[in-house]
Amino acid sequence: MPQNFLQKKTVRFKKLHRPITQTTTVKGGEHVDKKALIEQWFLRYGDEIYKFLVYYTGTADVEDLVQEVFIKALQALDLFEGRAQPKTWLLSIARNTAIDHRRKQRLRKWLPDSWLQDVRDERKTPEEWLDLHEEQHELYRSLQQLKPAFREVLILRGIKELSARETADILQWSESKVNVTYHRALKAMKGIWQFREKGGFGDAVKAR
Q: Could you tell me which CATH number the domain at 1-131 has?
């Protein structure tokens, strides 16, 4: 995550609007302050959410989306029953936020996904590109060539190292579907990398 975001993370979070109800009941019957709890999660999981959104959207310019994720979490905290881990719940919100963001982009631009990807890449600054290690950059580019279902399961299972059960909860799939899709996604990714090693262009083998 960019250093300036790390430095401003707590300050920016304080701009969130307070909900009408200030407390909520979490697992175990304990009453906690909503904003304090979300701020704690923001500091603990903010980097995880940021990295997930970078991989998912194909751009490092996701700070506003990170803020939106935690605003939504604050507003929906009464619905959190503690059955899932906070990180799993937040990643689910992040995924839905990213999907909504992409849908809004499509409505505004009326352009296909490949064109939107070009626009996102052009907005990336040199500093943001340099923040990614060379190997991470290759992974980052390859992920954008996978169809959404493959990209999602690879990010959650392979990169974020969530269990099949946690991944299924986020994607609202069965565990068997997660395992099958993950296997197919790995095969598709391997094909992309092999093609690149032979000097090919990734777009020619976009996995769908």
A: 1.10.1740.10
Handedness of CA 86, 92, 94, 96 (dihedral sign): negative
The topology (CATH level 3) of 133-208 is Arc Repressor Mutant, subunit A (1.10.10)
Cα of 118 vs its chain's centroid, Å = 19
User: Hey, which residues does 25 pair with through a beta bridge?
Assistant: 31
Where residue 129 falls (left for φ over 0; alpha for ψ -120 to 50; beta otherwise) is alpha
Note the pLDDT tens digit of each residue in 121-168. Answer: 444 554 554 555 566 667 778 888 999 999 999 999 988 889 999 999
User: How far, rounded to the nearest angstrom, does the alpha carbon of residue 13 sit from its chain's CA centroid?
Assistant: 19
CATH 1.10.1740.10 placement within the chain: 1-131
> Which residue, 17, 48, 18, is CA-closest to 33?
18
Q: Could you tell me the two tokens for 109?
A: 């631009």
Please give the distance of CA 76 from its chain centroid, rounded to a whole number: 18
Rounded CA-CA distance 113/152 in Å is 16
d(CA 81, CA 86): 10
Task: State the pTM of this model.
Answer: 0.66
The torsion region of residue 207 among left (phi > 0), alpha (psi -120 to 50) and beta comes to beta
